[in-house]
Design goal:
The protein has helices at about 5-25, 35-60, 90-95, 165-180, 190-200, 210-225, 240, 250-260; strands at about 65-70, 70-75, 80-90, 100-110, 110-120, 125-130, 135, 140, 155, 185, 205-210, 230, 245. By secondary structure, the protein is α+β, with helices and mostly antiparallel strands. The chain has 2 domains: about 5-140, 2-Layer Sandwich (Fructose-1,6-Bisphosphatase, Chain A, domain 1); about 150-260, D-Maltodextrin-Binding Protein, domain 2 (3-Layer(aba) Sandwich). Helix 4 (about 165-180) links the parallel strand 9 and strand 10.
């Protein structure tokens, strides 16, 4: 694919942050014997990655706003553009040495996501999309899967856990879905789940209680790959409601239908 100047800026920022994350990921096994060591180490890695991304993006596009998981909202002189960044999506996976984590960068222009990147430094999978120009995995065009029956589908979801989310509701929703699908997975990195839907690796994905930086880049990846992404009420308020369901048109509709029964 021929990358635009905008995507080149995003890729450069992600790759620079990824170099340190790769190094940090390799160091984790030395810290696993310590109870506090790994968590503190990963928190520091997360913050360093965000500062690296912020510095690179701000250098290339000075004045753009920035919303990051670690540093929160940073206002820019340009009120029409806003970066939405998760420097380390899948922190718990990273902490436990599981190579399912990613850097997620999206650009919002006048409240519309116009570009997105999801990059897994462990696998070097680089997912990119720009509005109206399609979605790509390592320069190969992506399309969502074509399956239309839940019985043939493999889905991913978020699972509430200790201190996060409504566990009884999560159990009802998973229970309602389990009897209707070929497989149900929980990978632990929202941005990658959405990227995998875009790539056709997963047929659909849903989750509640997530933040804009968890899904911003993934939304445009899915849509530019021919898929649909809405909140769990079927609307466009994913950021405000903190929920998302994504898949091809039939799958997205079917997932919503089943979840309503729960």
């Amino acid at each position: 694919m021929l990358r635009s100047a905008l995507l080149n800026v995003m890729v450069a920022a992600a790759r620079k942050a990824a170099r340190a994350l790769k190094r940090d990921f390799g160091e984790l096994e030395k810290l696993q014997v310590s109870l506090k060591g790994p968590a503190n180490f990963v928190t520091a890695a997360d913050r360093r990655a965000e500062e690296t991304i912020y510095a690179e993006l701000n250098k290339a596009r000075p004045g753009y706003g920035f919303l990051g998981e670690e540093g929160g909202k940073r206002e820019g002189a340009d009120k029409t553009h806003n970066w939405i960044v998760d420097p380390l999506d899948g922190t718990t996976n990273f902490l436990h040495g599981i190579p399912q984590f990613a850097i997620s960068i999206a650009l919002e222009r006048e409240n519309t996501i116009v570009a997105g990147l999801v990059y897994n430094p462990a696998s070097e999978d680089l997912f990119l999309a720009e509005r109206g120009k399609g979605a790509f995995l390592n320069d190969q065009r992506m399309r969502v899967a074509g399956r239309t029956r839940l019985a043939d589908a493999v889905l991913s979801c978020g699972l509430p856990h200790l201190g996060h989310g409504d566990i009884p509701r999560g159990q009802r929703e998973v229970g309602a879905m389990q009897g209707q699908v070929a497989g149900l997975r929980r990978f632990g990195a929202s941005a990658l789940d959405l990227a995998w839907v875009a790539a056709g690796r997963l047929d659909a994905y849903w989750e509640r209680d997530i933040k804009p930086w968890d899904m911003a880049a993934g939304i445009i990846l899915v849509r530019e790959a021919g898929g649909f992404a809405t909140d769990l009420d079927g609307g466009e308020d994913m950021f405000a409601k903190g929920s998302i369901v994504a898949g091809n048109e039939a799958m997205q509709r079917e997932v919503l239908r089943v979840l309503k029964t729960a």
